[in-house]
Amino acid sequence: MSPSPDLVVGDDGLGRPLWASKDPLLRAYYDTEWGMPIRDEQGLFERLCLEGFQSGLSWATILRKRPAFRAAFAGFDPDLVAAFDDSDVERLMADAGIVRNRAKILAAIGNARATVALRGTVGEGGGLAELVWSFRPAQPLAPRTHADIPTSSPESVALSKELKRRGFRFVGPTTMFALMEAVGIVDTHLVGSHRRGTSGVWS
């Protein structure tokens, strides 16, 4: 199968999608991180929070602010964030290094509490990670163009519904599909990308 026409071949001879072809930060993120499996609770909680904060903004904005987010949210340790109180909310609203959106900040704290509550529940011994990964689709995707990549899927709709039932917020189907892409549950690397198939999930 020929490479995707939407790939950009870099000066290193490697094919990448347009969004990862120019900005050095996005290029490094694409080359080393995006789409690689994340199966631990803290890692998934961080990504879930950041995807929520990204809603309505560019991922590049969130990625540049990620060090500040990690500092502000105690390394995204769910136990520590779950204990945040009103003073922490005001501290976060005054932190210019992050996205100062009260609804999203409150959602992140609430999602930490929901993450803690998931632990040890029947059928979800692994908590958040096991729950999220249980929505992995049966078949891989093989997009050749950007138009072939959906913005949601039946699995992301179902994951969104289940997380909302568990008390999570800012977890709509489109946001959850982006999460599934980012943590390796679905592979939307374009055909011909040097990253396609590198997650090991679909090999």
UniProtKB/TrEMBL annotation:
Residues noted as binding Zn(2+) in the record, renumbered to the chain: 189
Keyword annotations from UniProtKB, A to Z: Metal-binding, Zinc
GO molecular function: DNA-3-methyladenine glycosylase activity; metal ion binding
Zinc as UniProt keyword: yes
Annotated GO biological process: base-excision repair
Gene3D superfamilies according to UniProt: Hypothetical protein, domain 2
PANTHER family the record matches: DNA-3-METHYLADENINE GLYCOSYLASE 1, DNA-3-METHYLADENINE GLYCOSYLASE I
Protein name listed in UniProt: DNA-3-methyladenine glycosylase I
Originating species: Microbacterium stercoris
Lineage per the UniProt record: Bacteria, Bacillati, Actinomycetota, Actinomycetes, Micrococcales
